[in-house]
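User: Can you recover a sequence for this backbone? Please restate the input before giving your answer.

Assistant: Of course. Working from this structure:
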C-alpha cells in the first residue's frame, strides 16, 4: 500500500470521528436499529417486524446494537471500500496520477455529509461489494469460479438494496459492447447472482416467512417506484412507467453510442461510462431526491474526475460528457444535499466545550432532545421485554429505549402505506402494550384515543407528546 493511501485513510478516519458522536436521530438508521434489535430478540424479519429492504442491513444493525457501533462498522467498511477502489482503478487506469486523483475523489464523495456519507445507509455498504466484484472481473481470469464469485458479491450488494443489481448491468453491457460473443460470462455471472438470493428464499421459507419476505423486500419495491408520483398510479402502464422507460432508453442509447465508437475508446472509458449510466439509472429509479442514492455513482464519477485531470488524449475532453450527465441528473431531479462545513464546525464546538451535549444533539433535529427524554422515561418505567406503541414517525423511540413495537410496523407512514389504522387498533387492543406514546403533531387517530381513555392513564406530557401507561386492571 503506497504511503499516500495510508495518509488518505488516516484523514478519512479522522473525518469519520464526528460520526461516532452522532445521536439517535436519523429516521432510517433508527428503523434499521429497531429491526436489528428485533433480530437479536429472535423475531423473524418481515413476518414479525417490517421494513422494505432486503435483510443484510438489518443484520449489520443487529451486530451493531446502537448508533456508535453502527458508525464504527461503517467507518471500517468505508476504509476497506476505499482500498478496494484503489486496487480497481490501479488495474483499470494503470497511471499513478489517475489512481491518486480517482481514489481521493472517491474517498471525499463517500465520506463527507454532502451525499450522506456519514449516515449508515445501504448504499454505503453495497458499493464496496460492487467494487470487489468488479475487481475480481478485471484482475482474475474470467472462469466459472471467479465469475460466480463476482456474481455472488453483486447478489450480496442487492441484498443490502435491490437497485444494486443494475450495477451488474454495467458488466453485461460492457461485454455486449466489447465482445458480444462471450455469452457464457453473463450466464456464469447470473448463476452467481441468483445463488445467494435463492438461499434467502429457502431460509425464509423454512422460517414460515417467505411470502412476507417476497412482498416486503421485492414486490413492495415495485410500487415504491411510482409512490413518489401518486397521481400516476391509475394511469395506463406506459404513462405511469414512461419516465423509467425513458431513462432505460438513455442507458441503451448510451451503450449503442459506445459500441459505435468502441474502436476509438479505451475499454476503461467504455466500462466507466456504462457503470455511470447504470448507477444513475439506479439512483433515479424511484425519482426520490435523496442524496445518499447518488453514492452508487461515486466510483465511476471519481474515475471520470481523474480522466479529466490527467488524461493526455481525446478521452480527457470526452470525460466532460459523463461528468455533465452526472451534474445534470441531481439538478434536474432536484436532489437535496447536506452542508459539510456546519457538520464539522458544530462538532468542533462540542469537542472544544463551547456547547454542551444537549445543545449539540439539538442541532441534528428539533425533536432529538425530547426523544431522548421520552425514551429515558420509558426505560425507567418498563422492563426490557415490555413492548410499546408509538403513534407518529419517530422510530428513534424504539431504538433509544430498546423496546420493540407491539406491531410489526415502526412508523406511522409504514402503517399508512402497508396496513391501516383499523388493523393496528385491533392488534393494540388484543396485545395491550405497556406504553403508548402519541407524538406531538402525529396524524389524527380518534379511535386510538377511545382505547386510551378506556384502558390507559396519561402519566406524562413531554414537549407536547403524550405518554400513556396501561392500567393495572382493564375493563372488558
Amino acid at each position: 500500500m503506497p504511503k499516500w493511501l495510508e495518509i488518505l485513510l488516516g484523514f478519512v478516519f479522522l473525518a469519520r470521528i464526528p460520526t461516532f458522536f452522532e445521536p439517535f436521530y436519523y429516521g432510517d438508521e433508527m428503523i434499521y436499529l429497531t429491526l436489528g434489535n428485533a433480530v437479536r430478540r429472535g423475531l423473524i424479519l418481515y413476518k414479525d417486524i417490517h421494513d422494505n429492504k432486503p435483510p443484510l442491513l438489518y443484520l449489520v444493525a443487529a451486530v451493531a446494537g446502537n448508533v456508535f457501533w453502527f458508525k464504527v462498522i461503517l467507518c471500517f467498511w468505508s476504509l476497506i471500500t476505499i482500498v478496494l477502489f484503489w486496487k480497481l482503478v490501479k488495474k483499470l487506469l494503470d497511471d499513478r496520477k489517475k489512481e491518486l486523483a480517482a481514489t481521493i475523489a472517491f474517498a471525499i464523495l463517500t465520506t463527507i455529509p454532502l451525499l450522506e456519507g456519514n449516515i449508515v445507509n445501504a448504499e454505503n455498504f453495497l458499493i464496496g461489494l460492487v467494487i470487489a466484484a468488479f475487481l475480481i472481473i478485471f484482475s482474475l481470469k474470467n472462469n466459472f469460479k471467479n465469475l460466480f464469485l463476482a456474481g455472488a458479491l453483486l447478489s450480496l450488494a442487492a441484498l443490502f438494496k435491490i437497485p444494486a443489481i443494475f450495477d451488474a448491468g454495467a458488466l453485461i453491457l460492457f461485454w455486449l459492447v466489447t465482445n458480444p460473443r462471450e455469452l457464457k460470462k453473463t450466464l456464469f455471472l447470473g448463476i452467481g447472482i441468483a445463488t445467494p438470493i435463492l438461499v434467502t428464499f429457502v431460509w425464509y421459507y423454512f422460517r414460515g416467512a417467505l411470502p412476507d419476505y417476497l412482498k416486503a423486500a421485492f414486490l413492495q419495491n415495485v410500487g415504491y417506484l411510482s409512490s413518489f408520483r401518486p397521481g400516476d398510479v391509475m394511469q395506463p402502464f406506459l404513462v405511469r412507467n414512461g419516465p423509467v422507460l425513458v431513462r432505460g432508453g438513455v442507458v441503451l442509447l448510451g451503450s449503442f453510442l459506445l459500441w459505435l465508437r468502441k474502436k476509438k475508446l479505451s475499454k476503461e472509458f467504455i466500462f466507466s461510462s456504462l457503470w455511470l449510466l447504470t448507477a444513475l439509472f439506479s439512483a433515479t429509479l424511484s425519482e426520490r431526491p435523496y442524496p445518499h442514492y447518488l453514492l452508487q455513482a461515486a466510483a465511476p464519477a471519481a474515475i471520470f474526475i481523474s480522466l479529466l485531470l490527467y488524461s493526455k488524449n481525446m478521452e480527457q475532453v470526452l470525460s466532460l460528457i459523463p461528468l455533465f450527465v452526472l451534474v445534470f441528473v441531481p439538478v434536474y431531479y432536484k436532489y437535496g444535499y447536506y452542508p459539510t462545513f456546519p457538520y464539522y464546525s458544530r462538532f468542533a464546538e462540542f469537542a472544544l466545550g463551547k456547547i454542551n451535549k444537549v445543545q449539540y444533539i439539538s442541532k441534528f433535529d428539533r425533536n432529538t432532545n425530547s426523544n431522548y427524554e421520552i425514551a429515558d422515561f420509558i426505560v425507567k418505567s418498563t422492563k426490557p421485554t415490555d413492548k410499546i406503541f408509538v403513534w407518529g414517525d419517530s422510530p428513534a423511540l424504539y431504538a433509544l429505549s430498546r423496546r420493540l413495537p407491539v406491531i410489526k410496523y415502526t412508523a406511522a407512514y409504514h402503517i399508512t402505506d402497508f396496513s391501516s389504522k383499523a388493523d393496528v387498533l385491533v392488534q393494540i387492543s388484543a396485545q395491550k402494550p405497556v406504553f403508548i406514546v402519541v407524538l406531538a403533531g402525529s396524524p389524527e387517530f380518534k379511535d386510538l384515543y377511545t382505547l386510551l381513555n378506556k384502558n390507559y392513564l396519561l402519566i406524562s406530557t413531554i414537549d407536547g407528546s403524550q405518554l400513556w401507561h396501561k392500567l393495572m386492571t382493564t375493563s372488558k
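That completes the design. DSSP finds 23 helices and four strands in the chain.
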